Amino acid sequence: MYNQEKIKPYNSQEEKGKVVEAMFDNIAPTYDTLNHRLSWNIDKGWRRKAIQQLVPFKPETMLDIATGTGDFAILAAKMLSPRALIGADISEGMMEIGREKVKKEGLEGVISFQKEDCLNLTFPTDTFDAVTAAFGIRNFQDLEKGLSEMYRVLKQGGHLCIIELTTPIHFPMRQLFGVYSKVVLPFYGRLISKDSSAYDYLNKTIAAFPQGEKMMEILRRAGFSKTSFKRLTFGICTMYLAEK
User: What is the mean pLDDT of residues 74-86?
Assistant: First the structure.
């Protein structure tokens, strides 16, 4: 078990997946506003950079795991023009907002949303040309099982692209990020979403999540090959790429 798997957003005896679902349903109405404000909209650039890695492969069918309110799915649909893209998440509250955004963008014919348990996906083996995940895998109750499921539903030769918040490793960004994540992030979470526990949880999972070379090892154990990673914005975010 990895450290972030032990962390829950609320003091609850329920399994982590259920508690995380309740948390995201709770913060869904303010999630986008807070996310973009806390990152000074840099998160939009991270998504774009990640999707650009998939352009040469021209995926026709895509699965976006932990899709949330659909920002990554919408941008991927615009940049990659897949035939079909499914956004999967455990939170109906988040996906309801995503559906409204997709409708506004006129992408209902491309993007659909589906409630899924990331540890037990309902899709057949070898279904998708590409599987993506943006800022969601650190919430997995079982990281290795979740990644194995992502591997299973990818077609042979298919590509995985993950972006995840990480802790900078070099001075002074490591120290600055520590202050920001422990003080600023929970403060704004309490101010805007009225749920400081959720943003305290998200901060703790960033610190506990395996990153860099350690994450490469986990991806390889899940079956992936051609694994690589790149730190973005001084290591605040890390992009992981792999192939089945």
Answer: 98
